[in-house]
Amino acid sequence: MTAYVRPALSLVLLMTVVTGALYPLAVTGIAQVAFPEQANGSLVRDDRGQVRGSALIAQEFKGDGWFQSRPSAGAYVTVASGASNLAPSNPALADRVRTDASQQYQAQQGPVPQALLTTSGSGLDPHLPPEAIAYQLPRVAAARQVSEERLQVLVNDATLRPLVGPPVVNVLALNQALERLAPSH
Amino acid sequence: MHSYDYLLLLAFFAIVLLPAPWLGRFYYKVMEGQRTWLSPLLGPVERGCYRLAGVDAEQEQGWKQYTLALLAFNLAGFLLLFAVLLLQGSLPLNPQHLPGQEWSLAFNTAVSFMTNTNWQAYSGEASVSYLTQMIGLTVQNFVSAATGLAVLVALCRGIARRSANTLGNFWVDLTRATLYGLLPLCLVLALLLVWQGVPQTFADYVHALTLQGTDQTIPLGPAASQIAIKQLGTNGGGFFGVNSAHPFENPTAWSNLFEVASIILIPVALVFTFGHYVKDLRQSRAIIACMLALFLIGGSTALWSEHQPNPALESAQVQQGAPLEGKESRFGTTGSVLWTVTTTSASNGSVNAMHDSLNPLTGMVAMVNMMLGEVIFGGVGAGLYGMLLFVLIAVFLAGLMIGRTPEYLGKKLQAREVQLLVATLLVMPVGVLVLGAIAASLSGPAGAVTNPGAHGFSQLLYAYTSGTANNGSAFAGFGANTPFHNVMIGLAMLIGRFGYILPVLALAGSLAAKKSAPQGLNSFPTHGPLFTTLLLVTILLVGGLTFLPTLALGPIAEHLSLGF
Predict the structure, then answer these.
(1) Domain definitions of chain B by residue range
(2) N or C terminus: which one in chain A shows less Cβ crowding within 10 Å?
(3) H or E stretch including B408?
(4) What backbone torsions phi and psi does residue B56 show, to the nearest 5 degrees?
(5) Same structural domain for residues A89 and A149?
(6) One domain for residues A51 and A25
(7) Residues A104, A144: one domain?
(8) Which residues cross the membrane (chain B) (predicted)?
(9) Are residues A111 and B319, on separate chains, in Cβ contact within 8 Å?
(10) Which residue has the higher pLDDT, B178 or B120?
């Protein structure tokens, strides 16, 4: 039996050193040099250098003058992230979707896009599909008293179109640009 | 389906299938100790490990010694991780001052990572420290995958060798699998992920003031290095609680492609490794064809199902379309479904959308993939040794049909081999149906379900299926973090892991000892479309039929009640 104890214990410790310490340290070292922006959380700062969030983490936006983020089951809490985990057959899901739809519905624009009525997997989805932004555009334009055409330019700038996934708009980037164009205060 | 959906599927299959023959040969050379382009760099590290551990690399082990070595190594790894989880509160590299885990949760977590399951009854960013993520979880991610690879090559050698009484050296197989097989690929993937936006830092969580002026804590950590191995090692345990749905764990459509393809990159390649061991790549092609067929059947069913609007949400004010609850905007329906099918085909268990909120039949495809024992590519090593068991069962059935002693690649299958094969067939039913039934029949444990009706039963069924199959994904609403479920699902994970590994190694030892009979005209060919079809039918009937009643009570009942 002792013939197994020494290799077992020493290999566990050796693998801990190699894969648990050296490997993450090597990745950190290279990443901090090659991609410092991303490796540190894609932080977004204002003109004074204050951290205002991360380009990848959703923020809550309330009020007609802002583009609202994808709904969050965890109220945009970041520690810990969470989802609704409501089954498609759960009446609570249908109730919530219908209630939210009745509040956001604009007759002249047709039915409310699903992305504005459903919570994301992470509760921190930083994006919305373009149609969910388009649905909010007239409301935001009216509240900020800017033309829809000028807003559309900002939307286009904040839109990502990857080859292997659906187009999405980064809501934080869009709202930041909006704040620069027509400050809310 | 849009053009980007088709491009995603195309890129996925290209990344997974094109390098497989080359990568499979690489794994053969590595595991047999042949020189590769990495040898000058990693050779000294490898030899240093043997010297420090007192291992003679030339000394081969019989199946019993090989098994004891494997068990000793896994036990040592379990104890170390269990201790780290209990004591992390007083250990360094814990900037958020997280306390140690409660004992049943620590037991569940340690078993989970040791068995390559990565079932997570906790949320990473809120309950494990940076130190635990690194020296605890990341290490077990590597070595549990390496253990699977070691068991696979032991079985390959058992089939390939003649009149032999050894299967190789476990310590050597484990070391080579980790150093050459996993580390280099992980380094590449980790850097690709950082490039796309995954954090990799030891700095504390950052405090931000949002645009509307509220406080926000931004969790960080050495995430990319762990996410790389949890994908490539078919582990699946997320750095963050919501796994690859978290924008830091999977920031873009491109990172999604890299991560989902990484799940089965190594398992696909290993099918070719097997072909090199038995010096017959036609065998590999027959097995790959069967795996691909099962993948496409499940995948197209799930894609179709998930594109159906949920009838419960019908309303003039709600846009009708593929349901988005629990899905991230940047992946859309196709990117989410591809992940669901891949992660449950392999024993990965990471998720990029919440499986609890999937349409009933999509969730059923995920469950069926796991119930079949995760042989559709499957976990690193574990998928193919599971598949080879089905191959042997198919050969046995074919032998019964044509009235000849069944033989596979010149090795006769006799009473002992068939007994061991049947023992492995019992693993999934025992874990899912027996343990699951105990949990479902006790009011306390059954209270962990959070959705009403048939779906509530599906949540419990999924949990025990995922545990036994060493998958680790969940219908995550299920309140799994109770002492009962922590212990029972921990037990299911142990049964699911060692209930396969022990018979497989015994089988390998028994096959290795046999003489090889020359294959004649009367031998049943184990390549070509006829055998692939037989294998497919065997998997579905022998592996799948047992679970049909439970599926009827869960996802099928939910599907019908929703009026799709």
Answers:
(1) 3-312+321-562
(2) C
(3) strand B407-408
(4) -95, 110
(5) yes
(6) no
(7) yes
(8) 6-28, 68-87, 134-156, 177-195, 253-274, 286-305, 375-400, 420-442, 487-513, 534-557
(9) yes
(10) B178
pLDDT at position B564 is 85
CB pairs under 8 A between A and B: 382
Whole-prediction pTM value?
Answer: 0.97
User: Tell me: the pLDDT tens digits for B466-512?
Assistant: 999 999 999 999 999 999 999 999 999 999 999 999 999 999 999 99
Q: Which of B234, B183, B377 is nearest to B298 (CA)?
A: B377
Say whether both A81 and A149 belong to one domain.
Answer: yes
pLDDT in tens, B323-381: 999 999 999 999 999 999 999 999 999 999 999 999 999 999 999 999 999 999 999 99
Q: Which of A12, A97, A106 to probe by mutation at the B interface, max B CB count within 10 Å?
A: A12
CB contact under 8 A, B327 and A120: yes
Let me know whether A55 and A97 are in one domain.
yes
Per-chain mean pLDDT for chain B: 95
pLDDT of residue A185: 65
Same domain (yes/no): A91, A168: yes
- Regarding whether A148 and A69 lie in a shared domain, the answer is yes
B448 DSSP assignment? T
C-alpha to C-alpha distance for A105 and A99, rounded to whole angstroms: 10
Number of structural domains found in chain A = 2
Q: A115 lies in which domain range?
A: 46-181
- Asked if A11 and A75 sit in the same domain, the reply is no
SS3 content of chain B, % helix, strand, coil (to 5): 65, 5, 30
CB B369 within 8 A of CB B361: no
